[in-house]
Amino acid sequence: HSSILGMPRDGTLAQYVAVSAENVYLKPDHLAIEEAAAIPLAGLTAYRAVVTRGALRPGETVLVTGVGGGVQTFVLLFAKRIGARVIVTTSSHEKLARATALGADVAIDYKATPDWHKSLRAETIDLVVDSSGGDTLRKALDAIRPGGRIVIYGGTAGESTIRLFPLFWKHVSVLGTSMGSPQDFAAMLELFRDGLRPVVDRAFVLEETVGAFEHLASARQFGKVVLKIE
Predict the structure, then answer these.
(1) Of 21, 24, 131, 138, most Cβ neighbours within 10 A?
(2) pLDDT per residue as tens digits for the range 136-178
(3) In whole angstroms, how far apart are CA 152 and each of 54, 114, 132, 216?
(4) Strand partners, 61
(5) Residues 68/201, Cβ–Cβ less than 8 Å
(6) What is the pLDDT of residues 95-109, one digit of tens each?
(7) Which three-class secondary structure state does DSSP give residue 62?
(8) Closest of 81, 91, 54, 37 to residue 203, by C-alpha
(9) Positive or negative CA dihedral for 25, 39, 135, 169?
(10) Which residues does residue 227 pair with via DSSP β-bridges, in sequence order?
């Protein structure tokens, strides 16, 4: 019986939205309103993937595939806040630099290095957080350590065909997730109480909604794209 604004109810591209009082939270004082607006669904999805489902612990290593989108940027932020070592992949040199500035320990251009998964065999990757599917998931399965966890919350690259042998031989756990619970949301919000800030790529005014979606479709953004009312 899960439901979010936008599916199936009308979403938040509006000046006014009515929600139940128990779903309203105070904005962390240090955040601008555009930063606070960037948190809810992307931050919640990332928190559930990293903490609730992924059970990431301090000192572990997590692979974040396709960093740069809203959720994966939160995955990077949360993993570093937890105390994990973070490896990221993307196809943009600019995004690699941005991810490194946010604390990524290893940043890999997957287009320049098609066999990036082979270069990670020397790593001990405990957790993979992926939203791509496709060939990325197959490569992640090759890179992860025996007994590792792979959390999947999307499939932007389409269906994936994987070899079953490394899945069962390495005792890998593959976990699906999407969105999160009210308990997840409250716990996620606590991560922002001591100064953590989300990454806002760009804030468009409400009248520029079409342009905002075109910007998203270009895949040039790093972090969240938000709409603001002037």
Answers:
(1) 131
(2) 999 999 999 999 999 999 888 878 888 898 899 999 999 999 9
(3) 10, 21, 8, 21
(4) 85
(5) no
(6) 999 999 999 999 999
(7) strand
(8) 37
(9) negative
(10) 204
Beta strands, E only, 31-165: 61-64, 85-90, 106-109, 127-130, 149-152
Q: Which residues of the chain have pLDDT under 70?
A: 1
Q: Length of the chain, please?
A: 230
Report yes or no: 95 and 67 within 8 Å, Cβ to Cβ: yes
Per-residue confidence (pLDDT) for residue 155, from 0 to 100? 83
The CA R_g of the chain, rounded to the nearest whole Å, is 18
Cα distances (angstroms) measured from residue 147 to each of 82, 128, 141, 185: 20, 12, 11, 28
Sign, CA dihedral 99-132-43-9, equals: positive
Q: What is the DSSP letter of 27?
A: P
Greatest CA separation found in the chain? 56
